[in-house]
Amino acid sequence: MKKIVKQYQKELRNILLLALLVAVLPYLPQAFHFLETFTGTMLALALLSGCVLGLSLKLHYRLVIMRINRDNQ
Q1: Are 63 and 54 in contact (CB under 8 A)?
Q2: Domain carrying residue 32
Q3: Same structural domain for residues 10 and 28?
């Protein structure tokens, strides 16, 4: 069973993402109306800032790991 899951990992991920998108689809109009308010805009900016910060920290961590591996060789 683990072999099958590992072999079709990308396909299973894509199926789950598609199912999640279909489940969220009815709520999108209400979400767009919420984004037009000041609170919605601030929350969207906070979410975007958090994503940028998280991705930059992830990149920094990978660079540090690469440097450590290079120094150990």
Answers
A1: no
A2: 1-36
A3: yes
Domain count along the chain: 2
pTM: 0.59
Q: What is the pLDDT of residues 52-63, one digit of tens each?
A: 999 999 999 999
In angstroms, the Cα distances linking 28 to 32, 58, 61, 62 are 6, 30, 35, 35
Contacting residues for 3 by C-beta, under 8 A, at least 6 apart: none
The label of the residue with tokens 């060789």 reads: 73
Same domain, 32 and 1: yes
| Three-class DSSP labels, the chain | CHHHHHHCHHHHHHHHHHHHHHHHHHHHHHHHHHHCCHHHHHHHHHHHHHHHHHHHHHHHHHHHHHHHHHHHC
Which pair of structure tokens corresponds to residue 24?
Answer: 């969220």
